[in-house]
């Protein structure tokens, strides 16, 4: 995995926001501060509360289907009791993984398909910050 570092003033969260500029997402302030978010017209699907971590709203059915694959990455944690996963942003390859997961999140949160109700950010739910590393699942 590439561990290329970028200038200290630029975080991987900054690079992620830049990568999604041409996607059908809107960059905005996260509903649950601090940080930024990427949003579909009716819901935020990516939260960037820190420069080295992204939360992605995949929906519970998608997380259930992908648990084994996500575990193999070693870069993703499921947030218990939520439809969100955390992606560790510490290398350029992590941004590629994030792009793949955001693509899935866009599809999973498409308003023309059955989907989870709007899920609150784990940052805003007390006790949900306990991570479940998938590599131990």
Automatic annotation (TrEMBL):
Residues 43-105 form the Luciferase domain. Pfam families: Luciferase (PF17648). This is Luciferase domain-containing protein. It comes from Actinocorallia longicatena.
């Amino acid at each position: 995995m590439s561990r290329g570092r970028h200038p200290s003033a630029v975080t991987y969260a900054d690079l992620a926001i830049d990568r999604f500029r041409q996607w059908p997402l809107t960059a905005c302030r996260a509903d649950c501060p601090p940080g930024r978010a990427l949003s579909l017209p009716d819901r935020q699907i990516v939260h960037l509360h820190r420069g080295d971590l992204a939360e992605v709203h995949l929906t519970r059915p998608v997380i259930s289907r992908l648990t084994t694959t996500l575990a193999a990455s070693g870069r993703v944690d499921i947030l218990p009791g939520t439809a969100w996963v955390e992606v560790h942003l510490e290398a350029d390859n992590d941004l590629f993984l994030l792009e793949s997961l955001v693509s899935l999140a866009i599809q999973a949160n498409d308003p023309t398909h059955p989907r989870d109700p709007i899920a609150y950010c784990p940052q805003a739910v007390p006790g949900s910050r306990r991570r479940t590393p998938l590599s131990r699942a």
